[in-house]
């Protein structure tokens, strides 16, 4: 019997990852910097992309600005039309957005990239949701969806810059089923320089999300757009 859990280490050979070329990628929060950047990179790689927003008009405007065949729709329509839905909304709207879209997201592969952060005069710091992490909150709110977590540590500046051809970074991918994490790893691999790395189940998402606070400190100190690399994999 084949073990279909994410606990089995994924193959190192990227050619063993699934073909995701036919999947429609939706981006909730696609009018924000992170969502717009992800939409741009996936569209540039040849994926069909739909960006979502509470306002269909704002979504269509953002889609036109991104170009490369990206389409815009309200969040509900974006979720309905997509096979894989990336959640890139602000943390303070995370729960309300997902609660409202529970029906539209049923059966979908959901990729949560939200980082619960607070800011004060000392800089960024991690928040701890009652569920443990944003990804675990998503899983609790979307019991009929297949929730994963990924794309937390990417620079929105680099994602949106057409002069940047490669983004040399690894993407930590978390989830409960290997088939789902493999799909997300394959999507990450579409972006030149990027690689998806399985990083555990959703219960491990908090430390992945919270590491963004450290990267913000790195970037401010060194005036950089730092990412992550996992060695010996």
UniProtKB/TrEMBL annotation:
Query: Which GO cellular component terms are attached?
Result: plasma membrane
Q: Does the keyword Oxidoreductase apply?
A: yes
Q: Which UniProt keywords apply?
A: Oxidoreductase
Q: Name one GO biological process term.
A: copper ion import
For this UniProt entry, the molecular function terms from Gene Ontology, in alphabetical order, are: coenzyme F420 binding; cupric reductase (NADH) activity; ferric-chelate reductase (NADPH) activity; NADP binding; oxidoreductase activity, acting on NAD(P)H
Which parts of the sequence belong to the Pyrroline-5-carboxylate reductase catalytic N-terminal domain? 25-116
Q: Where on the tree of life does the source sit, at the highest rank?
A: Bacteria
Under Pfam families, the record lists: F420_oxidored (PF03807)
> Is the keyword Oxidoreductase in the record?
yes
Under the heading NCBIfam families, the entry gives: npdG (TIGR01915)
Q: What protein name is recorded for this chain? A: NADPH-dependent F420 reductase
Q: What organism is listed for this UniProt entry? A: Streptomyces solincola
């Amino acid at each position: 019997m084949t073990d279909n859990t994410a606990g089995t280490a994924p193959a190192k050979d990227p050619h063993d990852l699934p073909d995701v070329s036919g999947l429609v990628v939706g981006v909730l929060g696609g009018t924000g910097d992170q969502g717009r950047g992800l939409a741009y990179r996936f569209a540039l790689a040849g994926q069909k992309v739909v960006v979502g927003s509470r306002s269909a008009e704002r979504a269509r405007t953002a889609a036109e600005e991104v170009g490369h065949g990206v389409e815009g729709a309200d969040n509900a329509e974006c979720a309905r039309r997509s096979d894989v839905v990336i959640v890139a909304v602000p943390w303070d709207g995370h729960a309300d957005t997902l609660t409202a879209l529970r029906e539209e997201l049923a059966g979908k592969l959901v990729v949560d990239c939200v980082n619960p952060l607070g800011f004060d005069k000392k800089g960024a710091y991690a928040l701890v949701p009652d569920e443990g992490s944003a990804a675990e909150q998503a899983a609790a709110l979307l019991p009929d969806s297949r929730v994963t977590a990924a794309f937390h540590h990417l620079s929105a500046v680099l994602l949106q810059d057409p002069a940047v051809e490669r983004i040399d970074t690894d993407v930590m991918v978390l989830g409960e089923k290997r088939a789902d994490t493999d799909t997300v790893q394959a999507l990450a691999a579409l972006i030149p320089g990027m690689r998806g790395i399985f990083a555990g189940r959703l219960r491990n998402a908090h430390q992945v999300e919270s590491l963004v606070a450290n990267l913000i400190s790195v970037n401010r100190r060194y005036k950089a757009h730092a990412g992550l690399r996992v060695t010996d994999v």
